[in-house]
Design brief:
Number of helices: 12
Radius of gyration: 18 Å
Helix content: 40-55%
Structural class: alpha/beta
Largest sheet: 6 strands, parallel
Number of strands: 8
Order of helices and strands: EHHEHEHEHHEHEHEHEHHH
Distance between the termini: 24 Å
Strand content: 15-25%
Length: about 300
């Protein structure tokens, strides 16, 4: 059997949050369903952020109400603070992903918190989860995404020591999966190797996930480097749509279908249906009013079926 790679689909959240088009919750639910029919088993479905700041993510509760728990599937809700976490707990999310930053500059712009304040925020969430142990109802699993690991639009370069230290602080709180994000797409494959090694030094027992934006056309090369470094979980966005409203110049994530094509051609196992993904990328392009930027949505797969 080939080595399995888990692709976490982030199109319904990271993919849509920076688009000019604001899609109704019903359309976003349909996107999730189409992605799951294409093979997605972990999907970042919603963000519990105030709609004043990210109107594209309004109606998170409505989206989740239409997506009841289903065995074998994890619908993820992104949160930026304790208020967002409390909102997430009132829905059917299977997993909560806490957004953090490797730098003070981005943290203050994105959620009004310095790095130290973000760590305290996460500590408060973890403490609340421990206090709730044994309470009725399932508690969603918890992960954290560390933004700007390869560079910050406000603070510049990020050192391997910064990454190692911060990952260690997050892991010490009991967070078992930590995602390293190249929010503005500044990374290169060799820097990916260095930062993955730094994260492992800080948290040798933690599961690492990688999240690449393709701003400077290095996204797939960076994904390759991450996989070669032993990481088995990567984020991607159908159609390559996405970006961050608080990161000037950031473009979309690596496209799910482009990543699946590369991996499957190399003999890895992803569990995705490439033709269905391409169809979904073209469909969401119609909904947002522009063609999806992914290569596969234009060229299709190979060999032709």
């Amino acid at each position: 059997m080939s080595r399995p790679i888990t692709i976490v689909e982030v199109g319904p959240r990271d993919g849509l949050q920076n688009e000019k088009a604001i899609l109704d919750p019903a359309v976003r639910v349909e996107l999730v369903r189409r992605l799951e029919a294409s093979g997605a088993r972990r999907i970042e479905a919603v963000s519990f952020v105030h709609p004043k700041y990210v109107p594209q993510m309004a109606g998170a509760e409505e989206v989740m109400a239409a997506l009841p728990h289903q065995a074998g599937r994890s619908r993820i809700g992104l949160v930026l603070n304790g208020k967002g976490y409390d909102r997430a707990l009132g829905t059917a999310v299977d997993e909560v992903n806490v957004a953090m930053s490797a730098t003070d500059g981005f943290g203050l712009k994105n959620q009004g918190l310095s790095v130290d304040q973000q760590v305290q925020m996460l500590a408060d969430i973890v403490a609340g989860r421990r206090n709730a142990e044994g309470a009725p109802g399932a508690t969603p699993s918890l992960s954290a995404t560390l933004s700007c690991v390869w560079g910050c639009p406000f603070d510049g370069e990020v050192s391997v020591d910064q990454v190692s230290e911060l990952v260690a602080r997050i892991a010490a709180l009991g967070v078992e999966e930590i995602a390293l994000a190249d929010t503005i797409g500044t990374g290169d494959p060799w820097a990916v190797t260095r930062k993955v090694e730094a994260a492992r030094r800080g948290a040798p027992e933690a599961s690492l996930r990688l999240h690449f934006h393709d701003t400077r056309n290095t996204g797939l090369a960076n994904a390759y480097a991450g996989i070669e470094a032993g990481v088995d979980v990567l984020d991607a966005s159908v159609g390559g749509i996405g970006g961050c409203p608080f990161a000037p110049g950031a473009t979309g994530n690596i496209a799910t279908e482009d990543l699946v094509y590369m991996l499957e051609r190399a003999g890895f196992s992803t569990g995705y249906d490439l033709d269905a993904l391409i169809a979904t990328a073209r469909w969401i392009g119609e909904k947002i009013g522009r063609p999806a930027p992914s290569a596969l949505s234009r060229a299709g797969g190979w060999p032709k079926t």
